[in-house]
Design goal:
The structure holds 2 protein chains of 2 kinds.
Chain A (H helix, E strand, L loop, with lengths): L18 E3 H15 L3 E5 L9 H6 L4 E3 L4 H13 L3 E7 L8 H10 L5 E5 L17 H6 L5 E3 L4 H11 L6 E4 L4 E3 L14 E4 L7 E5 L3 H14 L4 E5 L2 E3 L3 H11 L2 E8 L4 H12 L4 E6 L9 H7 L4 H13 L2
Parallel strand pairs in A: 2-3, 2-4, 4-5, 5-7, 6-7, 10-11, 10-13, 13-14
Antiparallel strand pairs in A: 1-8, 6-12, 9-11
Chain B lengths: L5 H25 L5 H17 L14 E4 L5 H11 L39 H14 L6 E6 L6 H12 L5 E7 L2 E2 L2 E2 H4 L5 H7 L3 E6 L3 H13 L5 E6 L22 H14 L2
Parallel strand pairs in B: 1-2, 2-3, 3-7, 6-7
Antiparallel strand pairs in B: 4-5
Helix pairs in contact in B: 1-2, 1-3, 1-9, 2-3, 2-8, 4-5
Classes of the chains: A alpha/beta, B alpha/beta.
Chain lengths: 330, 279
């Protein structure tokens, strides 16, 4: 059942559950962070509207830097501004930032240890028709291997707003993963959010058969899968792992103890993503069987988001299948 | 900025020579590192740290200091030697270059040595960082000068030209770029590896104020910095035509000295050459 303590969206089961793009929450959060703190600046590489930086740029034109289509410069200019006391947010599509400018992020941001916040929009295959070149499914892997980088993958627009506001208040280099498409609103203004803290969104009394750990908008699919599994008699926990780095180790320990079997769900390559991060921890502490939902070493392609989520086996039925399989492996 | 008197010029020449000697000693001890670039840039470093930069070795984090970004981090022996001679740390520490636990990392890391403005090594990102600093200082209505030193081979990197366009777009007249135009890079002469000429025209067409100088002539360096500081509404680039390995005639203009350190014997020879210039 839904964890009532989190005050999630009461319409979550409704077929017409409100859908808002995760990137929209980033735009709202940036404006709030900028209102709060005049050291917040925004830099964009010619994608101001689609990365939702427009309202910030309009309200604070002197704190907005249009870099043009130049993501390497984008990252390092932000590094220079951060060295002078600014809190820069940089935006582009995740494929280009952190895709194209990985070394600049590593050296000029993380090695230099300056508080640049990287918002990578259009992550995941659900970008849709633009095709594989524009669907970043390696970005979390790229970011989580860099020392100091904090990696956040919000599950909906409201969480993205909170993550953005929270990121503006830390001195850590931070990556915030955003998605293009309208996706279900899972949380509410009252749902708690803290960087580095995961939450159980769907719970069982007592021990469970399996824990599904999901990140990004696929948390919604995980909840739908849990409901159906419950109807089939399986006890399921669903966890929203909104921070990929640092991982919420306490939560993982609890889930392993309570269920003894995990399914990880992400719109990202299985290689190097959230599932990998969890497996690295679990195998060296308290090994249990894990099944991984994610893209399996392939590129994306054109299609509708729904078609692509289905094609790459990220759908509700795939999560159900993985849960049944992992339980059978216990 | 004070007038560059003949007496002061003599001081700067002497400082440059001291810096060169320290570079040789530290590279011989380290047994690896870059020689040609540091020797070629010693005059400019002497001028910057002992004449034009607003800085305070006693208070390295002084808020209103000028910022100096070294983009081509591999020439750090000249930076370290200059910082030591300016009083940021003891000269003896120079002999720890590239050793385990040293603050003087093989390429500059500002967490090891906190008087550095940036860490560098991977080429092509310094101008961008300097642009960011210049933008931030403008937002804060500061009056700092942001200096960025780059190599010429380094200009092969496309990111530089992204940053150069950016600096011109925002008319960053608080930014002074100094290119170490020594015509060598690791694989040979710049014009063979990837031609850069006509470099003056390239920068002019990117809307920079361009000042082309002999980087070993202190009057020209002084004139260029003064002109750059008086330039409004556009960034300035000083193309410093430098002799790689300047001061050690046997090594001058030889690409093979780009990326290697002298042996003990070679170092002794170099120090003898430098002693001929001054003591």
């Amino acid at each position: 059942m839904i964890n009532k303590e989190l005050k999630l969206n009461p319409n979550i089961w409704s077929e017409d559950v409100e859908k808002i793009a995760i990137r929209t929450g980033f735009g709202e959060g940036l404006l709030i962070a900028a209102d709060d703190d005049e050291s917040v600046v925004g830099l964009c590489a010619d994608l101001t509207d689609s990365t939702k930086m427009r309202s910030f740029a309009d309200k604070y034109p002197k704190r907005f830097i249009q870099v043009g289509v130049a993501e390497q410069n984008l990252a390092s200019v932000a590094s220079g501004m951060a060295a002078m006391g600014k809190i820069p947010f940089i935006t582009s599509y995740a494929m280009f930032s952190p895709g194209r400018n990985w070394e600049q992020i590593r050296t000029t941001i993380c090695y230099n240890n300056v508080p640049v916040k990287i918002a990578g929009s259009h992550a995941g295959v659900s970008v849709g028709p633009d095709g594989g070149t524009h669907q970043a499914i390696e970005d979390m892997a790229l970011m989580r291997v860099v020392p100091r980088m904090v990696v956040i993958s919000p599950c909906d627009s409201i969480e993205a707003r909170k993550a953005t506001i929270a990121a503006a208040k830390t001195t850590d280099p931070t990556y915030i993963r955003l998605a293009r498409n309208n996706t279900p609103v899972i949380t509410t203004d009252d749902t708690p959010f803290e960087i580095g803290k995961a939450h159980i969104v769907y719970d069982e009394e007592g021990a469970a058969d399996v824990a599904i750990i999901a990140t990004g908008h696929l948390v919604y699919n995980a909840i739908l899968a849990a409901k159906e599994l419950e109807e089939r008699g399986m006890k399921v926990i669903v966890c929203n792992m909104s921070t990929i780095k640092p991982l919420d180790i306490n939560m993982i320990n609890e889930l392993v103890k309570d269920s003894g079997a995990l399914v990880t769900v992400e719109e990202h390559q299985v290689l190097g993503g959230m599932g990998s991060a969890i497996a690295e921890y679990v195998t060296s502490h308290n090994p249990v069987p894990i099944e991984f939902i994610g893209v399996k070493d392939e590129f994306g392609q054109s299609g509708t988001p729904e078609e692509l989520v289905e094609h790459y086996e990220l759908g509700v039925s795939h999560i159900i299948e993985a849960a049944e399989k992992v339980v059978s492996r216990k | 900025m004070e007038h560059l008197s003949e007496e002061k010029k003599e001081v700067l020449i002497q400082k440059a020579n001291d810096i060169r000697k320290s570079i040789i000693k530290m590279l011989v001890e380290a047994k690896s590192g870059h020689t040609a670039g540091p020797l070629g840039m010693s005059d400019i470093f002497s001028y910057l740290y002992f004449h034009s930069l607003k800085h305070d070795p006693e208070n390295p984090k002084m808020e209103d200091r000028d910022r100096l970004i070294l983009s081509n981090g591999h020439i750090c022996p000249v930076l370290y030697a200059t910082l030591a001679h300016a009083g940021y740390f003891e000269l003896e520490e120079l002999q720890t270059l590239r050793k385990f636990g040293s603050r003087l990392q093989g390429h500059p890391h500002r967490e090891f040595l906190d008087c550095l403005e940036n860490s560098s090594g991977p080429l092509g990102s310094g101008i961008s960082q300097a642009v960011g600093m210049a933008l931030a200082d403008r937002i804060d209505r500061g009056d700092k000068t942001i200096y960025c030193l780059t190599g010429d081979g380094e200009l092969n990197e496309g990111q530089n030209w992204e940053a150069i366009m950016h600096a011109a777009k925002y008319k960053l007249d608080n930014l002074i770029l100094i290119v170490d135009r020594n015509y060598i890079q690791i694989d040979g002469f710049t014009e063979d590896v990837m031609p850069l000429d006509p470099l003056v025209n390239k920068f002019e067409s990117f809307n920079f104020k361009v000042i082309d100088i002999n980087g070993h002539d202190f009057d020209m360096i002084d004139g260029a910095i003064r002109k750059a500081k008086n330039t409004l509404n556009m960034p300035t680039v000083i193309i410093a035509n430098n002799i790689p390995s300047k001061g050690v005639p046997e090594w001058e203009n030889k690409p093979e000295w780009h990326g290697k350190a002298p042996s003990i014997e070679e170092g002794e020879m170099a120090l003898r050459e430098l002693s001929k210039i001054s003591n």
